[in-house]
Amino acid sequence: MRSGTPSSNCGGCSVSNFCFNQQQFDGITAVHWPPQGPSPALLDLSEISKSSVKMLLLGFVFMMYLSFVEIIQSHHFITSKEDCYDDGPVAVRVFLTVCSLPASATAKGVVRRRLEVNWVGIQPARTDRVHIYRRDPTQDPTAKPILSVEPIKYPGGYYKSDIELPIHTHHLRVSAEYPCLGYWATYERKKGDVATSTCLRTHPSWMAEGGDHLGDLHLSGIMIPGSHDSGSFFFGEERAPFSKYKYAQEVSVFNQLVYGLRYFDLRVGHYGGEFYINHNFLRTHHTVESVLYQVQKFLTLSPKEIIILDFHNFPHGFRNDGVHLKLQNLIMTVLGPFLIPFTDEFENATIGKLWRSERNVLVSYDNPTRAAFFPDAFWPSIPRAWGNKQTAEELKAYFREFFENPAPQGLWASMAEITPNARSILLHPESGLRKLAEEINKNVTRWFRDLYWQKANIVATDYFLGNDIIEVAIRTNRIKGICPESAWAGITP
């Protein structure tokens, strides 16, 4: 049984590309390489010229670098049907996440969160180490780790560092060539024996990059990473009582797209002639128009990505059908040329057909006016597996029972977040969705990677940078596109 895919080789990134506060690294002790202290008496360096010593050292570093790159490049990856039946050893995998809880804030009030490193697929040995870098060690053999962890001391396969990252308030770069965001991690079996590497990264074109195996699949047959209450995002820290339950995300819809999300759960309120994103009855300061234009801008930069906008709820101001018509007209004005029609031709279209049609936005509109005003433009509501559970154990039990049954037909969504109710909010007004996301996100990664990947379709989460669903989805879809279903039982994405 396999676990993992090849590590991301995020070459070419430099720290200068990113706007991180360098003061955040105060107090972190770098692990030196080569190790400090006397070297074994292999050579009498006093008898060798300085230039010769320099050449020897450079040669040693270069050989270590070649060995490192060879290990990274040879890491197992499913590229053909033969790989689907490979009974080789389980592959170790390391990945980076971002804790949803605020650690501090910038002078402008932008939240900083702590970087997390995770590993899976291995029983750690005493000599194993996980390293975090600020430069890509696969491209720079002189890169030194800013933090090293002994995984044997953390049986949960997880370590929350003191490295703080501010939220990206600007638009991230849409670049498949330079996807890394300034942090790399490696898993080292023994000194110099790197089993795998990764970086904290974006996936702005993962669907286009999967053209060789995604083209014959349907949207309902792949795993689609998404966000819950996608438009309820806020860069700062919610300080007022109960406000901590208002926001479910911390980066803009544009940046959610750049990171790799492709499903967006939208709730809309109508106030004084303007449409705003709501979280239930709580209004945010984001207009629907601004969100739609973020989607439009992303599509001009990454035109083969297929996006699902789920207009799920209209909790305020929709007093008559005319308000719905006004909102639908707005959607058509901004995204009309991109919309996937709800017709017989497209209802069961493959992803390849959608690419050829140059239609790549599916809008679901959960209101009867959908069929009255624009019957061919908008899709009906997307069914949801929503547990409405207040603890991780309750949500785990809900999904266990749900996935024992056959998967629904067509598009459907697993709402993989803890849902507070009135009682829990009143009892814990200082808790909030960030804390609930921190409690559930690591579980969500494990559940959908190890248990439910074969059946899951859309997976929507809160504060998604705290889980690995985007990477799990990409690996799952590669398996589904290359391996026959009869081989799935022997594979873990």
UniProtKB/TrEMBL annotation:
Keyword set, alphabetical order: Disulfide bond, Lyase, Magnesium, Metal-binding, Secreted
Keyword Membrane listed:
no
Q: Which reaction does it catalyse?
A: an N-(acyl)-sphingosylphosphoethanolamine = an N-(acyl)-sphingosyl-1,3-cyclic phosphate + ethanolamine
Domain spans labelled Phosphatidylinositol-specific phospholipase C X? 213-366
- Tell me, what is one Gene Ontology molecular-function annotation carried by this entry? metal ion binding
Q: What is its main location?
A: secreted
Q: What is an annotated GO biological process for this record, any one?
A: lipid metabolic process
InterPro entries, alphabetized: PI-PLC_domain, PLC-like_Pdiesterase_TIM-brl, PLipase_C_PInositol-sp_X_dom
Localization, UniProt:
Secreted
Q: Which PROSITE patterns match?
A: PIPLC_X_DOMAIN (PS50007)
Asked whether the UniProt record includes ATP-binding among its keywords, one would answer no
**Domain of life of the source:** Eukaryota
Write out the GO cellular component annotations: extracellular region
What PANTHER family does the entry give? PTHR13593, RE10370P
Stated name of the protein: PI-PLC X domain-containing protein 1
Q: Output the lineage of the source organism.
A: Eukaryota, Metazoa, Ecdysozoa, Arthropoda, Chelicerata
Give the gene that encodes this protein.
Plcxd1_1
